[in-house]
Amino acid sequence: MSEQIAVAVAPTTMALAGISKHYGGVAALADVSLDIREGEVHALLGENGAGKSTLMSVASGAVSPDTGSVTVGGTTFAALTPASATELGIAMVHQHPAVMPDMTVRENIRVAVPSQHLGGDGTVAMRGMLADVGCSAHLEDRVSSLSVAQKHLLELAKALAVKPSLLILDEPTAPLGQASVELLFNRVRAAAERGTAVVYITQIPRCVVHGLARRDRWHLGDCRKRPERRAACAGRARAVRGSGADRRQEPHHEGPAPARGVPARGSAQ
């Protein structure tokens, strides 16, 4: 008699269903579906032009799909807007930081972070936000004077400050040094432990495997390409945390976890 093992399935934070997006006659996304689960880190893998950022721009309300739906908290939308996505607890750190260069760090935070997360004049909270992600910028610094890495860390600080239900990171490690990368991974782990769903967009699976699998147990979905068309692929790095009987136990690995295919549903041209 085969033994049946119960596996806990985390609630779905967001479900993208049948998402298609065309620019002119070019299909950026074609019938793509993805479930993003609470407390898990999902690696969205693919080369340039695979549709990764477009799909997550749909998730964050920056892009409206031609067809498909977005379901958050049991409510289904034809499309989100940036304002509605923020209200739903969705935060995205873009590959190219969405900062206002002519304003100070303080002013950038004021614009992006609701006052209830700052308290008083916000100075103490803002300094804490920056320190938490290793950003050495001063509140009165002009953002135009910051390095690319510091701008990325400022973006990350703003996103984490609102304690999002869904955190999307688009190629977050590209401009960062090793110390900042380690700090970023630590913050991602902590956010997932609090129940935040995380989507990590990258071209380099090794970055996810080595950075996020070192201390935890993960399944890494692989990214497959169909010979007749490029597939928009969602590789899920799912944390298997805890040791209770309700979770399937996997052997611990110092380094890459064994890959298990999570085929993408849909394609990008």
Beta-strand percentage range: 15-25%
- Domains (count): 2
Straight-line distance between termini: 46 Å
Would you list the SSEs in sequence order as H and E? Answer: EEEHEEHEHHHEHEHEEE
Helix content: 25-40%
According to CATH, the fold-level topology of the largest domain is Rossmann fold
Class from secondary-structure proportions: alpha/beta
Shape: globular
CATH fourth-tier homologous superfamily of the largest domain: P-loop containing nucleotide triphosphate hydrolases
Instruction: Assign the CATH class of the largest domain.
Output: Alpha Beta
The main pleated sheet reads as: 5 strands, antiparallel
- The total count of strands amounts to 11
> Whole-number radius of gyration?
19 Å
Mean pLDDT: 76
Spatial arrangement of strands, main beta sheet: 5-4-1-2-11
Provide a count of the helices: 7
Q: Just name the CATH architecture of the largest domain.
A: 3-Layer(aba) Sandwich
Task: Describe the protein in words.
- The chain is α/β, with parallel strands linked by helices and 269 residues long.
- It folds into 2 domains: 12-89 and 166-267, P-loop containing nucleotide triphosphate hydrolases (Rossmann fold, 3-Layer(aba) Sandwich), CATH 3.40.50.300; 100-163, no CATH class.
- The chain has 7 helices and 11 strands.
- It has helices at residues 52-59, 82-87, 105-112, 123-132, 148-161, 178-193, 205-212, and strands spanning 12-23, 26-37, 41-45, 67-72, 75-77, 90-93, 166-170, 197-202, 218-220, 237-239, 265-267.
- The strands form 3 sheets. The protein has a 5-stranded antiparallel β-sheet with strand order 5-4-1-2-11, with helices on one face. The chain has a 4-stranded parallel β-sheet with strand order 3-8-7-6, with helices on both faces.
- Strand 4 and strand 5 (75-77) form a beta hairpin.
- It is globular and about 50 Å long.
- The model is unreliable at 213-264 (pLDDT under 50).
